[in-house]
Amino acid sequence: MGGEGVVAALSAYVGDAAQKPFAYGLHDCALFAAGWVLERTGQDLGASFRGRYSTERGGLRVVRAAGFADHVAVFRAALTARSGWMAAMPGDVVAVPGEGRFAALGIAGHGVAYVFGEWGIGLVPIDTALEVFAL
Predict the structure, then answer these.
(1) Residue 99: its pLDDT value, please?
(2) Fewer C-beta within 10 Å: the chain N or C terminus?
(3) Residues in domain DUF6950 (predicted)?
């Protein structure tokens, strides 16, 4: 799908996600990003974790039990890293600074990243991306 198709699909995905309440283990930043990867590639990076935790700490526990340092490491292991925020393309998965100790996962748009948190869908400048993973 070309760039315009990705943007249209992303717009629809973000709109649908915005209708769901935040819930760790069901609809949080990692599963928001994992759902996008699933929709675009058929690869479900959240399959081993979805429904298995209900707190941030519990999420960290289940990804560590699976051999990952944190939720970003799950994406790092499965996707190809880009060389930085300037290489981000709409639809790429990004890690941005989170409100707590951990990065938040989101999806790159044009000049922004869509992130999902307890407040709902938010936008952050793409130049805040710590890591970018190609889709």
Answers:
(1) 82
(2) N
(3) 8-134
Task: Please list the residues that pair with 133 across neighbouring strands.
Answer: 81, 93
Q: What rounded mean pLDDT belongs to the chain?
A: 95
* 75-111: pLDDT as tens digits: 999 999 999 999 999 999 999 999 878 899 999 999 9
Q: What is the DSSP letter of 27?
A: B
The 10 Å Cβ neighbour count of residue 83 is: 8
> How many CB atoms within 10 Å of residue 123?
13
Give the tokens for residue 103.
């990065």
Cβ atoms of 85 and 104 within 8 Å: the answer is no
* CB of 30 closer than 8 Å to CB of 107: no
Q: What are phi and psi of 35, to 5 degrees?
A: -65, -40
Angle at the Cα of 110 from the Cα atoms of 106 and 116, rounded to 5 degrees: 20
